Amino acid sequence: MTQNKIEEAVQPFISHLIELRNRLLKMIVCVLLIFLGLSSYANDIYTLMAGPLMKHMPKNSTMIAIDVASPFFTPFKLTLILAVFISIPFILYQFWAFVAPGLYKRERRMIFPLLIASTLLFYLGAAFAYFVVFPIIFTFLTAAAPSGVAIMTDISKYLDFVLTLFFAFGVCFEVPIFTMVLVWTGLVSPADLADKRPYVIVGAFIIGAFLTPPDPISQTLLAVPMWMLFEVGLFFSRFFVPKQAVDDGEMTREGSINKISPKED
Questions:
Q1: CA pair distance 182, 238, nearest whole angstrom
Q2: SS3 104
Q3: What is residue 127's predicted lDDT score, i.e. its pLDDT?
Q4: 224 and 200 in contact (C-beta within 8 Å)?
Q5: Inter-axis angle of helices 2-38 and 70-99, to 10 degrees?
Q6: What is the dihedral of CA 195, 198, 199, 200, to 10 degrees?
Q7: In this predicted model, what pLDDT tens digit does every residue of 35-44 receive, in sequence order?
Q8: Please, are residues 88 and 218 in contact by the beta-carbon 8 Å criterion?
Q9: Of 79, 122, 144, 221, which one has the fewest beta carbons inside 10 Å?
Q10: According to DSSP H, which parts of 173-241 are helical?
Q11: Cα(216)–Cα(2) distance, rounded to whole angstroms?
């Protein structure tokens, strides 16, 4: 009897592992297919990525490759990362399809929109970094070079630099999602977050100072959107308040009214 129970418990676990393996394989195949499709344009993709820097470099200056294999591997590294970047919606869908059967109906209604919103916000943060922040940063950095110093950036180090900024801005643009998840899990309430607004504003400018060059313009370009996104997340977090917290709040208000109102004979 005990042996049968153990087998019944093991079989669902094995089936879940098989499903997870199949979904991971689908993710890998998706990334590889996109990578193979883009690999012939690897150099063009890197040239496009280097555009914000090259526009602000002195005339007749170029980027350099310190390592012997960098001219070959660096564009393909960027192409692979771009393939993963493009595949994010499909990857998130596979994770969603794997965990959704184990969620309650209300949790499914909440999590799926959050996944879509988080993906769009990450893309928006990366686009904001490329089109707004990069020109400002590279204008400042190239203008700050001392006289007599030739600006020649290594292609692999430049790639690491821009990828770090892409990731930083993509994560920073997830502020509304973090805000709503904190409220949804019951860790804080919208009223608590509203009370902490001054600390959030100061924190946004501190983060902006760390992630951008030491000038107030680029710092503000990151801090102000983070603050605005916090306000957006604070507004929508009211729709993610746990039902129990809402019921407790209503009971508290009713109790206060009963204490204040005179009893009728």
A1: 11
A2: coil
A3: 92
A4: no
A5: 140
A6: 90
A7: 999 999 999 9
A8: no
A9: 144
A10: 175-184, 190-195, 197-211, 216-237
A11: 69
Q: How far apart are CA 97 and CA 9, in angstroms?
A: 22
State the SS3 of 107-169.
Answer: HHHHHHHHHHHHHHHHHHHHHHHHHHHHHHHHHHHHHCCCCCCCCCCEHHHHHHHHHHHHHHH
Strand partners, 64: 154
DSSP secondary-structure letter at 101? G
Q: Sign of dihedral through CA atoms 127, 131, 132, 138?
A: positive
* Predicted structure pTM score: 0.76
Q: Tell me, what's the pLDDT at 81? A: 93
The first and second tokens of residue 161, run together, are 């630099």
93/126 Cα distance (integer angstroms): 20
Over the stretch 1-39, which tens digit does the pLDDT of each residue have? 455 555 555 566 788 788 888 999 999 999 999 999 999
Q: Which residue has the higher pLDDT, 205 or 221?
A: 205
List pLDDT tens digits, range 85-120. Answer: 999 989 888 888 888 777 777 777 777 788 888 889
Cβ atoms of 109 and 165 within 8 Å: the answer is no
Q: Which residues are bridge partners to 154 per DSSP?
A: 64
pLDDT reported for residue 250: 46
Write the single-letter amino acid at 186: G
CA 244 – CA 206 distance, rounded (Å) = 36
